Amino acid sequence: NAGVTQTPKFQVLKTGQSMTLQCAQDMNHEYMSWYRQDPGMGLRLIHYSVGAGITDQGEVPNGYNVSRSTTEDFPLRLLSAAPSQTSVYFCASSYSGLAGGAAGRTQYFGPGTRLTVL
Amino acid sequence: AQSVTQPDIHITVSEGASLELRCNYSYGATPYLFWYVQSPGQGLQLLLKYFSGDTLVQGIKGFEAEFKRSQSSFNLRKPSVHWSDAAEYFCAVAINFGNEKLTFGTGTRLTIIP
Known about the structure:
Helix content of chain A: under 10%
Order of helices and strands of chain B: EEEEEEEEEEEE
Order of helices and strands of chain A: EEEEEEEEEEE
Helix content of chain B: under 10%
Number of strands of chain B: 12
Strand content of chain A: over 45%
Low-confidence stretches of chain B: none
Number of strands of chain A: 11
Largest sheet of chain A: 7 strands, mixed
Low-confidence stretches of chain A: none
Number of helices of chain B: 0
Structural class of chain B: mainly beta
Radius of gyration of chain A: 14 Å
Strand content of chain B: over 45%
Mean pLDDT of chain B: 91
Number of helices of chain A: 0
Distance between the termini of chain A: 36 Å
Shape of chain A: globular
Distance between the termini of chain B: 41 Å
Radius of gyration of chain B: 13 Å
Oligomer: heterodimer
């Protein structure tokens, strides 16, 4: 298993540009999520999905869009990048609800994408 | 809403010394508690988790954590640290079994000196 993969690893954008951060998992997890990590603020939830076709907002959703057309993929879209979106972005996945029992309550994180918006 | 506090931003310990990282949570009931570790430039790896039962939980890499309901705490401990333990450590909570949304603390950076 590759686990959770993210591409690209690094990206530099200019203000106003758009891009999509890719996230894929091969563990058949229903739940997937996106976090951003900023110095001194820990990780904050952007959007999450409990299954294909179902998404919802997290703590800091503004400026980001998501969709979930397959179980495996959960891309994060920045429609018009702003310097405030400079951050490290992590994708995570896990079983959803009671699937997997207590052992399933582990979220697996990807290696992250470091995004700089100039 | 639930919250997590890690009061120590940065801790420095000598190799071989014991370690305790503090975590306090705010929530009306018992949440589900996690400790993650992030090595430089890497993603997050789960060290251990608490759902119910024995309040002392063992994790990977020789770490353990104790849940204390009366203090709303879930402190992480290791009896003897190794240079490879240098990393950032995050405490996180989820408020119920079916809620995978994690709320993270701000992290504690651990430096190990020879």
